[in-house]
Amino acid sequence: MIELGLPWVLATLPLPILAWRFLPRAKERRAGALRVPFFDEMIGSVRAGVLGRVKRFGAIAAMIGAWSAMVVAAAQPSWVGEPQSIPTQGRDLMLALDLSGSMAQQDFAVNDRPIDRLSIVKAVAKRFVEDREGDRLGLILFGSRAYLQTPLTTDRETVGQMLDEAELGLAGKETAIGDAIGLAVKRLGERTAEERVLVLLSDGASNAGVMDPIRAAEFARQAGIRIYTIGIGADTRAFGGLGLMSLGGGDSLDEETLRRVAETTGGNYFRATSTEGLIEVYRRIDELEPSEGRESHVRPMRALFHFPLGAAFVLSAMLVMAHVAGALGWNWTAGRGR
């Protein structure tokens, strides 16, 4: 299909006619008159030289064609093909999930029924993973030590299955937040993606491992990795609520460290004290780090302006050559008459 980039330019097509119709004619300069007895024969000779090859109507048609072709070229015609899908580059996003013993506490609720922290976290995180179309996702599980459960992959189904298989105590009963960040930095640092993100969720304080969380966050910042931290656990003063702000939390939750880790890397810290609050946290992260790898469509385009432009050049060249040929014919005729 042919489209015009500047279709309004076509409105200039009648400009020559309007100029001929409404602009005043140039005044003729009249000098002294001289009667020439063979005037008719001279005019006939001139007409034969100038318009012999290109008749009057042919010259007018050539001028109209040249003008029209130039206007069409200025309108930027192009051929546009059918839409074609292309993949775009998404983010490298690593999830780090706390499997320490405190995740067994049943201080969340679904339909007014108590449920343990790990079960609700797995359900909400799995939904988050399913919506990250086009991103490369990975999963780190940490307790006393940190383990890479799933390397970065675009297979969201596999990441979801690994989440389902996560069990309490699988990585130990303590909490090695610094080691989890360090492992994520190592894996994400090997990638060349422009957007590299770690989402770390914990309900406690770092009390195991060899890496200090703040020091690990510095390494993440140097590697260009943003970290979003989530502290979970029902408020000891008021069960429920959205819980995006700090509400006091459990006694073991180290909110200050989680907040400093996020701020050091340019991320954000969130506090979730209920099921609805945790869902909202992941929704907020999805807004802050939108999936850019969703399939997009483009339509191939090829410019066609050179075709009418070339036609205008050819017609203009023909008119110029006809004019030059006429002038040379007049001079040759005049030379013979001497």
Provide a descriptive summary of the structure in words.
The chain has 338 residues and is α/β, with parallel strands linked by helices. The chain has 2 domains: 61-78 and 308-338; 92-288, von Willebrand factor, type A domain (Rossmann fold), CATH 3.40.50. Helices cover 42% and strands 19% of the residues. Residues 236-251 and 330-338 have low confidence and may be disordered.
Helix-strand layout with pairing:
Layout: E1 2-4, H1 15-22, H2 39-50, H3 56-74, E2 77-80, E3 84-86, E4 92-98, E5 108-110, E6 113-115, H4 117-130, E7 136-142, E8 146-153, H5 156-165, H6 177-189, E9 196-202, H7 213-222, E10 225-232, H8 255-265, E11 269-272, H9 275-288, E12 296-298, E13 301-303, H10 306-336
Parallel strand pairs: 4-7, 4-9, 9-10, 10-11
Antiparallel strand pairs: 1-2, 2-13, 3-12, 5-6, 7-8
